[in-house]
Amino acid sequence: MNAPTPNLKSHYDKLFIDGAWVTPSAGQEDVLNPATEEAVGSAPVGSPEDTARAIAAARRAFDDGPWREEDRNVRADRMQKLFDLVKARREEAVGLMQLEMGFTRLNCDMQLGLLFGQLERTIEVARKDPLKPLAPMIADRLGGGGRAFGSAVVTRDPVGVVSAITPYNSGFLLGLVKAFPAIAAGNSVVLKPSPFTPLQSMLIAEMMAELDLPPGVFNVVTGGLEVGQMLSADPAIDMVSFTGSDAVGAMVMAQASPTLKKVQLELGGKSPVIIRHDADLELAVAVALFGSMFQAGQGCSLTTRILVDNKIRPAFVEALAGAAGQIKVGDPYDPATFMGPLIREAARTRTEDFCRRALEDGARLVAGGSRTKGLDKGFYFDVTIFDGVSNDSHLGQREVFGPIAAVIGFDTDAEAIKIANASDYGLGGGIISQDKATAFEMALKMRTGQIAINGGTGGFHPDMPFGGYKRSGLGREWGEEGYNEFTEIKAIGFPAG
Ligand code: NAD
Fold first, then answer.
1. Of the residues 100, 108, 300, 477, which is catalytic?
2. Is residue 147 very low, low, confident or very high in pLDDT (cuts 50, 70, 90)?
3. Could you tell me the distance, in angstroms and rounded to a whole number, from the CA of residue 167 to the centre of ligand 1?
4. How far, in Å, is the centroid of ligand 1 from the Cα of 244?
5. 194 and 112 in a common domain
């Protein structure tokens, strides 16, 4: 194992609530490195009492109003300062991401690249005047009685108190993707990270503490189920911004429903990439492999269903299996490594179970399928590829969140679209073809939130909204659309007569 970032702070014993570092009432817990299975840090564990305190502080901060009533350019200047701090402390962020998630440097750099583009764009959006005048018009007077002249403006208000609940695979990225625009728009935030990755949120809190925000505008509470339940059910919270699995997303929605609060859900996926007969084979293999094995398969919009035209499928699968054999799995600190570990043993057992069921369902294993040999410590699993997967099988339908790609054959473009859309999810997608016009027409027919033509899984433009159809969620993050999710729309009319 190579060395992690030197002098990295990985022990925290206080939560950040109401503008101060406070001792948690539930004590502390070790933080595990999934690459070594060793305790590499410690973090405070938030309790229901801590959570109640954070919610009350956020409520008071919003209701008292100094932050939401602040000029939007003053708020944007403060967010610029936060962005500068994020850039200045980039190496610490990378260090904690590697420590808690077992990510390679490439994985961390790609997440941070996305993040920086977003923060920059959010500051620009936050400076824009939300006031939009509607064109004056002459309309029929309500209730009859002739015609009247009237006008109106539409503006945006912050939603209020926002709880931000994040998953384990992007604690730093998503903690900021939620808290940054929410605070820029004038809201107060309570952030809860995954219990597997609390340290990245502690780093966010340290940066927020340097901003001199009014107390209570930003708070972090760690913890699991109980804290998450409070953050989605409490009537003092106006909006839950949740990222995680669809199963927990459904619980969050149910927990939030008695109070009818706004719910934003960014959930899982089983995203398809369609490889047409005219695809550049080398590009198709690179996109398929990178798009399914990035972060050891622990990415929400990874294209884990690889739909390939049967005319080129044998050649494609042979090339894909060959390329898979070149991938180095292991120590995430080694620059030659492409794939680090899974987060915990349970994730590895689940991945094994998917392999077993895929074989039972008649799929053909062409690469991997087992734990990585020679690595006794760390939750490693080989790059795994199945060919001849049926789209309606367990592997064709369910999210693995591990390094398994499913190759599914098709004969016509129409059939490819049909298979792509035959999923409970609708998050990402891709098309590989040299015929860009046809690829674009196919993209229009796909029922997913983002689609990349000839590469990647989206996210290359800072104003591309991110989110999914169907069981992949509700609402959008990123860019202007994402910023607007943290606002309420207000219309003020000037009816004449
Ligand atoms: P998870 O659903 O297990 O947990 C997510 C968060 O919810 C954690 O902080 C957890 O403590 C909390 N939680 C658990 N039970 C809760 C409850 N009843 N009420 C409120 N909060 C509760 O997800 P995970 O395993 O940490 O992350 C992986 C999942 O996240 C995958 O499904 C992945 O696709 C998804 N994800 C989606 C996106 C996206 O933007 N769409 C991004 C990253 C990850």
1. 300
2. confident
3. 4
4. 2
5. yes
- Could you give the strand order of the β-sheet that contains 272-275, starting from the edge strand earlier in sequence? 364-367, 384-387, 404-410, 305-309, 272-275, 430-432, 452-453
- Could you tell me the CATH number of the domain that includes residue 308? 3.40.309.10
Q: Are 410 and 308 in contact (CB under 8 A)?
A: yes
| Closest to 110 in 3D by CA, of 457, 447, 468 | 457
- Identify whether residues 330 and 205 lie together within a single domain: no
Q: What pTM was estimated for this model as a whole?
A: 0.96
Tens of pLDDT, residues 469-486? 999 999 999 999 999 999
251 Cβ below 6 A of ligand 1: yes
The residue nearest atom 43 of ligand 1, judged by CA position, is: 300
Model confidence pLDDT, tens digit, residues 249-304: 999 999 999 999 999 999 999 999 999 999 999 999 999 999 999 999 999 999 99
Is 108 catalytic? The answer is no
Contact 149, 177 (CB under 8 A): no
Domain count, the chain: 2
Please give the Cα distance from 284 to 270 (Å, whole number): 18
- Establish if 162 belongs to a structural domain: yes
- Does the Cβ of 10 fall within 6 Å of ligand 1? no
SS3 477: strand
Q: Do the beta carbons of residue 262 and residue 417 sit within 8 Å?
A: no
Residue closest via CA to ligand 1's atom 39 equals 266
